Every structure is written in structure tokens, then in C-alpha cells.
Amino acid sequence: MNDSMSTNSMLVQLPLKINLRNDASFSTFVAEQELIAQTLSSLQQPDKPQYAGCYYFFGPDGVGKTHLLQAACRFYSLKQMQSVFFPLMDKGLPLIPDVLTGLEVTDLVCLDGVEAIIGHEAWEKSLASLIAKSKVQGHRVLLAGQMPIADWPMVTDALRSEVFSIMPIPLTPIKDKDSLVLALQRHALNRGFDVSIEVVNFIIKRFSLDLQELLAVLEVLEQASLAEKRRLTLPFVKDVLAR
């Protein structure tokens, strides 16, 4: 990797590693669909060349796309392997198409908000090259976005040819109550505290079936528990949420 590439990588990686969410781990993600469970299993076997290639997680906001990409980066880091995470929709970062050049030597490249670069010739060519070369190297590229690949407004033959090697993984909101309970309990454990099924059921009944909203409530309860040095019992939770 040449000096200019190293400089470009430092510019984008330094703030991104700081901003990896603490709760972004595979253990806190609840997969209802078998395809997702199989994909997560393959991502946690980084030394298996048969799982190399490109995966595209897509779906509406709040289904865990960014969570999965950051969880993968965290997992690879713990395995002492190289990973990089680029939020392509972030206008404040110095991202140019050349930033993808040479990244095929990286064990894992995660590109969030990939729609931001689709439709731009230079970006599409860089992306197509990265996907093709990474697979040859036995490495992985994870993409995330909202729209199906069939709806991408592609302008280059290079990317049109390469999309056939991308594995699309649709993500949908969690609808099953038991899965929501499990997700909240896993997030609580990841934060270092326990929350009973009784408490979780009360939160769900009181608020909604939207995981992101429930996680926000969980954060409020965690802060109250730490501030008052009290366990998250049902009476305490009811008191906090009534304030």
C-alpha cells in the first residue's frame, strides 16, 4: 500500500474507530430469519475462504444495518484482523473514490449507506474493483443500504457485472415479542446489568414494538439505575418512567 493510500486511510479511520457503538456486537443482534443467522455464522469464521466475498444488508431505518457492520468490525478487531468502516452518507468526511483503492488487502471492509455512491461513475468503478479483488484475496466486503440491488441507479458496466457476486441479505423490523424481549435483555447484559422478563414486558407494553425506541428507554433506565444505585426492579422502573 503506497504512502498516499495510507494517508487517506488514516484520515477516515481515525474518527470512525472512535465512533463504533459500544453495543455493536453480534451477541446483541437477534436474527429472526434463518438467512441472517447463517450469514452471521459465516462472518464469524473469518479464516474460512469459502465465506469470502461481498454481502449486502438492506432494509429500512432501524433494522440493524449499521449495527451489523460495526459488529463485524469489532469482531475482526478482537481477532487481531484488519477492518475498516466507512459511513458513505456522512458528508463531513473526506471520502473520495480513491479511498477504496488497495483496500482489498484489508480483511474486512464495511461500507454503510452505499446508495450515496451508486450512480457516480468513479465510485462505482472503485467499488466494483474492490469487490472483485477482495474475493480473490479471500477477504470480505460488507455493504449496507435501504434499497434492493435491483433498484440501484447504476451507470457503469463494471458494477452491473459485479453485482451478481453480491449476496443480498434483506433485514426487516423485529415483530415477534419474544425476539424483542431477547434483544433487550442482550443489550442490557452488554451494558453490564440484568433486566428481568417482567420489566422488559412492561416496557414493551408501555411503549411500542419498535426496537430503537425501546433501546432509548433502556438507556434512560440504565442512567437512572446508576445515578440512584438501584436495581431495575419493576417498581423502580415504573417510578422512573412516571417522572
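[next item in queue]
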Amino acid sequence: MKSKKITKTINQQENIFDKLSNDWWKIDGSFSALHAFNFVRIKFIKDVLGKKKSDNLKNLKILDIGCGGGILSEPLARLGAKVTGIDENENAVKVAIDHAKKGKLSIDYKKISFNQINFKKKFDIVVCMEALEHLNDIETLIKKVKESLKPDGKFIGSTINKTFNSYFQAIFVAEKILNIVPEGTHNWKKFVKPNNLKKKLVINNFTKIKFQGVQFNPIKNEWKTIRNLSVNYMFSSELN
């Protein structure tokens, strides 16, 4: 049974995303930082795959875990990938489906939790961006990712480190001062240290694990890659 504290946190976060369901595709809305993040995320994915800037992702099968309203799923699909997006928030999935239809994009969206993943097909890539820091059970997620990948498949994601600096920037500044994201979106206790994530990946036969720090400039609404991993970071790994 979930503790009252954990249940309250989960319900609070679900309510936040429900209230923001109309904001997913407002470029200057509550998810503007995620839209800006796409430029860095797509480049990182291409770099991991050894793709050039002009290369597309034609015919690659990609699973987007925690797809939300489809902010990352859509550009992946436009680059030629066959995308499946999953999220447990019903309103977000509805928004994603409607927006993809408007853009005439063929994306397979499903309203399921990560622990319900049971696809017959295997994926070339599984992405999980800005979602790990909202989960109670990362180990189960990694096991599900492992089950979903082809041999030598890639697991790529982004999350937030668990440091004093991350609390200050991602919660105090971002939520309470600048209102970049709604207050209550993040729970510092769920933030993920790179070393802990690496251990869980290694245990599940993932190799070639790499980390890349990223930094957000709220004034310019821009992201850039940095060496420092103390706040936001991306990661990549390969199933051995």
C-alpha cells in the first residue's frame, strides 16, 4: 500500500498535468522550456546514433515513455521514425493524439503506465525524457526498457540530479521564483543521481553509459550542453 505522503505527491502531480492539458502545444505556455529543449534532445539522440545533422531517423522504431502531449514524439516522427508514445495521464494522451492528427503524423499513442509495457515488437530506441524524476520505481522502468529493446538497442533519456544545486535551481528558482514550471511539479527526493542510475543500468546489462550535462537559460529560453551534471543531465546507454 502506498503511504499517504507518496499518494499525495502522485495525486498532486497528476492534478498539475491535468490542469495544464491545454498548454502542451502553446510555445510560450507552461511547457515552453520543453519545446526549447527539443533542439538539444534531438541533437543528443542523433549524436548517440552516429547520425549527421542532416540525417533522418527513417524507419527506426522508437518508444517514447512519458510522452505527455507529444512534444518529443512529433519531431521524432517528422524525422522518419516509427514512434510509439505512452503516458499514464489520459488528458495528455488525448492532446497528443489530436495534435498528431492535425499534423497528419502517424504516431501510436497509448494511455498506459510504464509498468504495463508489454509490446510484442521490439524497439531500436527507447527514450524517457524528463520523467525519471517523477517515478517511485526506476528499477522496474529499466527492466521494462530492457524487455522492449532489440539487441544493441539504445536507451536515451534526461532527468535531474539530486544535489543542493538542483533543489535550488529546479525547485526554488524554477517553481517558486520564475514560475517556469508550476509549483509542486517536482519532488527533490525523487531526483536521480547519475551514479545510482548507472548502477541500475549496469545491473540490467546496459553498457556504453554516458552522461551529458545541460543548462537552461530562462531569459533566452534556450538550452545548452555543459560538463556539469549537478542539475539537469541527459544519458545514453546500449543494451548488451
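[queue empty]
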